[in-house]
């Protein structure tokens, strides 16, 4: 009976402590405070989740530093951490029956409204009225806490027993997966610009989808070596080699068939179109912080008859399901992208590692 089930789950919640540690940004300034705050109680349609892993990524730099970008995408106060995994420890009323204590979930951090044009046309991930977990938009909660509230509507139930590290990076992996579905790399040449996490995941997914040849470009040799492990066939250091010459050499003068722009560097984005063969396809994932300028619009874009795709987030929840399947079946080995583990209490060191560029995926354990 639903009432009895809810009562039993409330009893089980008694084992949860009354307070927890969480990172909190309470003012528009740099860094976070590690605070002891009350453990929240799930309300109607909500889950209380014990967070086992949280991850920080490039987009967290703006939130930490509280720069102009942060002022656009976030609202104080909030707990950061939009990439996380955990175990349900309590279930609020009116949640779907599949959400039970003990099951593991990740958070789809694009909180959709369910009423706008996009939501009514299977585009919930780009909802007009989107709120965002870990950003203070529509919720103060985030994954950098020992316990968190996730509305059941935005909770992805894990289907396999992949470990917490791999489950924690399903969120960024899902971004790459949606992008590669838009790219259609099967039996074609692919250039991936930028070998950070999204670029690496893109390489692995392209390989799994049957790309014929994958070129990877970065300015750090160690990142290129990691890219090789993900399936890149040709490694190009952009500081040492002319990218266009390398692309033409590797494609018999045709230009690249499929291009993944994962740097967000304006120069790289501007230059991308000239690397494509006629009829090619490009997907933009990186986040440029400056205006874009294409010198030869006619020859590089219009007359090439190219397809330009952009992505934001993951398709809900198909990107999650397909990503988990690829990882659980070892079609893509994501472990080499996970370079650092820190106790959440050492968050400053974790963020300094992120700023230095020496890490790739950096995971936090809220209970360590």
Walk me through this protein's architecture.
The chain is of the alpha/beta class and 368 residues long. It is 29% helix and 25% strand. The strands form 4 sheets. Strands 3, 4, 5, 8, 9, 16 and 17 form a 7-stranded mixed sheet that branches. Strands 12-11-10-13-14-15 form a 6-stranded parallel sheet, sandwiched between helices. Strands 1-2 form a two-stranded antiparallel sheet. The chain is globular and about 65 Å long.
Helix-strand blueprint:
Elements (H helix, E strand, L loop, with lengths): L1 H11 L6 E6 L8 E6 L7 E11 L3 H6 L2 H6 L9 E9 L12 E4 L2 E2 L19 E2 L14 E5 L3 E3 L6 H5 L1 H14 L5 E5 L3 H13 L3 E6 L2 H10 L3 E4 L5 H8 L5 E6 L4 H7 L3 E9 L12 H6 L4 E4 L7 H11 L9 E6 L3 H10 L4 E5 L3
Parallel strand pairs: 10-11, 10-13, 11-12, 13-14, 14-15, 16-17
Antiparallel strand pairs: 1-2, 3-4, 3-8, 3-17, 4-5, 5-9, 6-7
Helix pairs in contact: 5-6, 5-11
């Amino acid at each position: 009976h639903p009432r009895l089930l809810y009562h039993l789950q409330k009893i089980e919640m008694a084992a949860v402590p009354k307070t927890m540690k969480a990172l909190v940004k309470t003012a528009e300034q740099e860094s976070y405070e590690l605070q002891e705050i009350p453990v929240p109680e799930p309300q109607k349609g909500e889950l209380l989740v014990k967070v086992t892993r949280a991850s920080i990524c490039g987009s967290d730099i703006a939130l930490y530093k509280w720069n102009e970008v942060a002022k656009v995408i976030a609202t104080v106060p909030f707990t950061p951490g939009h990439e996380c995994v955990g175990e349900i420890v309590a279930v609020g009323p009116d949640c779907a029956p599949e959400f039970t204590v003990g099951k593991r979930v990740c958070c789809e951090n694009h909180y959709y409204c369910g009423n706008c044009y996009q939501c009514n046309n299977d585009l919930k991930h780009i909802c007009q009225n989107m709120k965002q977990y870990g950003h203070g938009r529509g919720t103060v909660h985030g994954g950098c806490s020992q316990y968190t509230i996730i509305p059941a509507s935005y909770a992805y139930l894990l289907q396999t027993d992949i470990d917490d590290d791999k489950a924690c990076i399903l969120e960024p992996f899902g971004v790459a997966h949606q992008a590669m579905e838009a790219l259609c790399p099967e039996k074609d040449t692919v250039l991936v610009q930028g070998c950070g996490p999204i670029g690496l995941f893109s390489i692995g997914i392209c390989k799994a989808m049957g790309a014929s040849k994958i070129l990877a470009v970065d300015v750090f040799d160690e990142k290129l070596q990691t890219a090789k492990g993900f399936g890149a066939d040709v490694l190009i250091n952009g500081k040492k080699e002319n990218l266009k010459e390398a692309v033409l050499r590797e494609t018999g003068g045709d230009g690249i068939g499929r291009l993944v722009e994962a740097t967000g560097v304006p120069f790289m984005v501007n230059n991308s179109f000239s690397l494509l063969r006629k009829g090619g396809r490009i997907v933009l994932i990186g986040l440029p912080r400056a205006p874009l300028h294409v010198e030869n619009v006619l020859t590089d874009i219009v007359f090439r008859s190219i397809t330009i795709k952009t992505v934001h987030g993951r398709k809900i929840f198909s990107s999650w399901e397909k990503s988990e399947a690829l990882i659980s079946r070892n079609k893509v080995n994501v472990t080499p992208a996970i370079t650092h583990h820190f106790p959440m209490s050492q968050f400053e060191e974790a963020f300094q590692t992120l700023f230095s560029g020496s890490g790739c995926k950096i995971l936090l354990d809220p209970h360590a």
